[in-house]
Amino acid sequence: MNVAPRASAFGVKDLFTTINLMGGVVGMCLCIDGQPYYAGVSVLLGYLLGDTMDGYVARKLGTANQFGAEFDTISDHMSHVIAPAAIVYKVYIDQHLLPEPWMNQGLSIALAGSLVLTVSIRHARNIVSPVDYTGVWAGLPRSVVGFWAIAYCNASLTPDVPGGYWIGVFLIPAMGIATLTYLPFPSHRIARMHTWYVRIVMASWFIVLGASIVFAPRYIFDVLFVFMTGYALTSWRALSGAELADFKKTVAAAKARG
């Protein structure tokens, strides 16, 4: 009797997820070697070459499965939360904002820990009492928080703005706390008919980032910081009034369950 071969859990789509994961791993190693800038580049490349492709490949090949979903989740947590936290720690431990070394170390640990703790709590909350609304995330997405933190710490202009790295002492925990809110943020899981100016902004993001990588690598993270901030503040405008009303009802139901 012929038996059909068992489908492998690990497929082509997961190779791209692996690229995303390894971007975070390399980033962590570069932090240990004292290179937070290149650690940020590694995480960013892992996202662009891996995380933006795994879902697309899975849909095109029809190979989406539970293994891929779980692998993608843990890879995102590693590369978009833990690796950025390591970058935050390394950058702040070198700033010497406080008079005593142990104070500066404590501050650096607290800032890095604020990212990992808040996003981990959000993940656990979403498993226990998920807000199941296709196309909308509840709370600021972890990838946005992670890339915002990486961009702020590595931006060339950060030391020159009034307040410098002290601003991040307040904003980094605040961005982490934003993940625990139920504010709506549009996701990439459904196609949207964006207005013309939104499409221009989205195209500009890839064009400007690509141009900065090639022609002005010093300003890669300045560009990333601007766009991550723009997404965090304005992305909700992509949602229709009906979506916002329905999402609010879904959040109320999730809170009732929780």
Describe this protein's structure.
- The protein starts with 11 loop residues before the first helix and ends with a helix.
- The chain has one domain: Up-down Bundle (Four Helix Bundle (Hemerythrin (Met), subunit A)).
- The model has no long low-confidence stretch (mean pLDDT 87).
- α2 packs antiparallel against α3, α2 packs antiparallel against α5 and α5 packs antiparallel against α6.
- It has a two-stranded antiparallel sheet.
- The protein has nine helices and two strands, in the order ααααβααβααα.
- The longest helix is centred in the first third of the chain and has 28 residues.
- It has 258 residues and is mainly α.
- The protein is 70% helix and 2% strand.
